[in-house]
Structures are given as C-alpha cells and as structure tokens.
Amino acid sequence: MATLAAVFDRLLDAGATIIVIDHDLDLLAAADHLIDMGPGGGPDGGRILAAGTPRDVAQAPGSVTGPWLAEHLSLPETRLDRVAQLGP
Fold it and tell me: What is the gyration radius of the CA atoms in the chain, in angstroms?
C-alpha cells in the first residue's frame, strides 16, 4: 500500500485529481475527502451515508465505514463503542 500511496502523492503533486473506490483503512485515512456509500452493496447501496474528511466520516453517526475508521485513527469512539450503542 505504501507504494500505491507514493504514486498517488506524485500524481497529486503534478496536479492530478484521483478518485479511488477502496476499503483499505490506510488509504481512507490518507484521503483529502471521503464519500461513504451504502449501507450495503448492489441494490442495498447507492446512498451517501457520510462525506468529508476521514475524521468527519469516522464520527458520522450514519456511516458504515466510520466505526472502523474511528478505531483506525484512534479516535475516542471506537468501532466497538458504536456497535454497543446500536444494540443487538
């Protein structure tokens, strides 16, 4: 992933715009702007659940990706905290 991130950095330095569809938390955490779509795939998806910086998405209550990103970024509310709040 470090090699890919380095290539992206070179492209950005050259003025490119990069759009990536991915689930890798390192890549998501390094992004300038995220759009979390879902809540599922295919016919269960297609809605914007959260958008903004990685921190914004990590803290968005409706984000499916947010809890895992929050844990990855070591934010106070972790994935497990949010799952516990949602209940069974």
Answer: 14
How many Å apart are CA 48 and CA 36, to the nearest integer? 6
- Measure the CA–CA gap between 22 and 30, rounded to whole angstroms: 12
Amino acid at 28: L
- pTM of the predicted structure, to 2 decimals: 0.77
Residues in the chain predicted with pLDDT less than 50, given as ranges, are 87
Contacts of residues 63-68 at CB distance under 8 Å and 24 or more positions apart, as own/partner, are 63/36, 64/36, 64/38, 64/39, 65/23, 65/28, 65/34, 65/36, 65/38, 66/36, 68/25
SS3 content of the chain, % helix, strand, coil (to 5): 50, 10, 40
